[in-house]
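Example record used in the benchmark description.
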Amino acid sequence: MTAPTALLVTTVHWPATSRLAIALAKAGFKVAAITPAQHTIVHLAVVSRHYVCHRYGQTQRRLSRAVTRAIEEIAPAIVIPCDDAAVLCLHRLHAATNGNDTSRLAAILRYSLGEPSSYPITAQKGDFIRFANAADIAVPATDIIGDPATLRRYPVGTLPRVIKIDGMSGGAGVWIVRTAEAWNDTIHFLTARKSWFWLAKRVIRSGTLLPLRSRFGAPAPILMQEYIAGELANCTVAAFRGEMLACHSARVVHTFGETGPSTVSWIGHHRGIEEVAARIVRALGFSGFCGFDFILRKDDAQPLVIEMNPRPTQTCHLALDGSLSLADALFDAVTGAPRRERREIATERLVALFPQEFWRDPKSPHLCEAYHDVPWEVPYLITAYRQPPPMDWVEGLKRWMAPISRTRGAVGPLMMPLPEPRQE
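Model output (structure tokens):
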């Protein structure tokens, strides 16, 4: 049997995409990828075909052309969007076919992503909250404000409060507002008209025209969400045609900042979280990888869903204690092979994610005490991710021009030693 091809689509340099490519190859997939020109995935031996979505400036049109070309040339069995811009691109490509599933493009996208009627629900935080309320799924009380200009008249109410810009991810565009002064500052930032100088700086730094959307495009809705005290948690899922094939849950220990992604988690299984995740996947007819963020309240009541990420999250590649990975479960579903028995994680494992926890704190005790998820079998990734990828070309130029300190005893981020792998 010819191995099916999984096509990864990403517009950003997230390490999780490279880790997922390796997991998919181990599961049995041939792997192809559409990425920016300098993505680390280009150097992985497991990637059989690579397409560049952009070299100097990202646009949805360029990405769409790359996706269409790849699907026409390699006819992948499944397409996996790995960031939110890629999700939006695939949704728009399917919409452009007008639901004509006789075309190869529409058929592959529907097979890969699930029921098209659920696409807006999965891609927009506000639509997901509306869906959850209608389906009687517990979520924090949320007001969705379509016109940010009205924010100045919005009552402060009880603080703290969570403010989110719809359509953003990775903790960006999220504020936990605890004081009246912070509330006023945040509202001013969201409602102030950005100057041309401000926009020009961001266009130059990003190398894209995306910042201009705040001037010419429709403003993104704002979510005013109740703040719930409790423990952050998440659930990572592999699904196919509305069935949750496999998952693992995590209770978060550390994150990048207050609203960023997790870097250290207790990973295992949480029955309440996974039941909610399975229910949502079934209702949406979802296919592919996704993740859900939760709050576990101190009174141990029903978990509250914060949001859904309709793409792989940073733990999709994990296979702890010899268990099958989520990629293995997806491979069995795509090929129609008998499902392999999954050995469940017996107890929760404390996991420090590489390189996220290393970036957060190179001296973190979790790097030695927890299971440190270093890809020892791919030394290139260890070297490539000693530092976070530059956020824009200006930062990249600064790094290139900065002299490497050779002073005895001076250890920079690129030379920081990693703990040796522990014998399990």
